[in-house]
Amino acid sequence: MIWQRVTQENFSELIRFILPYEYLCVNFTSRLLNNNRLELPPPREAALFIGKDLPPESHDRVGTSGTFRRVRAAVLVTSKGLVIPVHEEGMSLNADQLLPLLTQIYRYVRRIYCVIGMESTVKQYEPHLHEAIDTFRSHYLMLRPKQRPLVPLSIPVKIQIHHLTEKQIKHIFPLEKAYQYEEVVVHPERFNTAAYMLHFRRVVKSQKVLFASLNGVPISKAGTNAIGINHTQIGGVFTTPEYRGHGVARALMHRLIEEIQISDRTPVLFVKTSNPSAIQLYRRLNFDIIGRYQISYTRLE
Description:
The protein has 8 helices and 14 strands.
């Protein structure tokens, strides 16, 4: 295995490899789009790498010129230290194969704070990081095939569904913050409300976010968090505890799926393996479990 930094010259090789696997990594491919055009992200935002097999006759000439085999892995690293690895199905890499890649990654970033991807892939990287793993979250990756019909669904009485606008961000932010505390934040004492508000404003500008209200009070939300080439990833699904089990989230998700279908993309999402009620909701909306997904966070020193 030889690792190459992705440049304009080999960008097309990355795209050919990643497209069949996009349903596994919409958070990867979404970073390759700029105004719906495929572009290499600027170095200040991310670095990309592709891993290829060497031809048999080149195994004793690592680093020399020659023709390389097909791409078998791709890795995106953000400037903040998020790593998203994507491997050819069933491929397992050992230390000798991964350490040259990690050497290049640590030249680009000082530290890695998170590795996210299919569980079997993420676990291959964990033992070789400079940082210790603090905690990890186990999820199921779920996909809803486009060909499955979306059965008409009535909205619960008195519930109104809205598209979130920038002017409504402060109104909806308590709901978003509650979602972050329940589903995302590892160390609540470190949560920076002001910094996250800025991040959430950027999300609202670039993504589709819906919310449901009752008598003018927001009670549920759902949206996209990554829009890829052929797939859209759903995230941030949350309903206040007192309104769970009443069909609000289902109605909200139904509307969101309708809008994703209009864009001719396939919806995917990941859900905690420890959340049976959410899994049941997504199954009722015709999502299938297609694998185990893991988010591993490293320890902050």
